[in-house]
Automatic annotation (TrEMBL):
Annotated keywords: Arsenical resistance
InterPro entries xref list: Ptyr_pPase, Ptyr_pPase_sf
Protein name: Protein-tyrosine-phosphatase
Pfam families xref list: LMWPc
GO process terms (BP): response to arsenic-containing substance
Organism classification: Bacteria, Pseudomonadati, Pseudomonadota, Alphaproteobacteria, Hyphomicrobiales
Transport among keywords: no
Keyword Ligase: no
Span of the signal peptide: none
Residue span(s) of domain Phosphotyrosine protein phosphatase I: 2-128
Length: 136
């Protein structure tokens, strides 16, 4: 579903990579926006803006050099989607914070953990690109 991990990764990548970099996220299914994603991004000075969840079919006509998947189902779909394309597909397994239970703070901690993991992976994958300084 394109409502939690990939939109968060999209927002982070947009904040960390040059503006000319084409960045889009999509899922196997769309789904509704997740308010915890908005809350965690707002804490970091980021926003999804008016972005709405998309499916892979919504991006069918786009060209990609790299597709990064964050869940097993998305990875299998990306491999199928790109089988006749010259595109690199990477799998970055990320926990699903929607499985978190407990208080609001405990749930937010699960979303913050995913944010931090994504930020680290993006920094490692694109080391020559230094992210702008952000107050956190």
């Amino acid at each position: 579903m394109n409502a939690v991990r990939s939109p968060m990764a999209e927002a982070l990548a947009r904040s960390m990579l040059p503006p000319a970099t084409f960045i889009a996220s999509a899922g196997v299914r769309s789904g509704e926006p997740d308010p915890f994603v908005d809350a965690v991004l707002a804490e970091k000075g980021l926003s999804l803006g008016e972005r709405h969840p998309r499916t892979v079919a919504d991006l069918e006509d786009a060209y990609f050099d790299l597709i990064i998947t964050l869940a097993p189902e998305a990875h299998h779909a990306a491999l199928e989607f790109t089988r006749s394309m010259a595109v690199e597909v990477e799998y970055w397994p990320m926990p699903d914070p929607t499985n978190a239970t407990g208080t609001r703070e405990q749930i937010m901690a699960a979303y913050r953990d995913v944010h931090d993991r994504l930020r680290q992976r993006i920094s490692e994958r694109f080391p020559t690109i230094s992210p702008p300084e952000r107050a956190e």
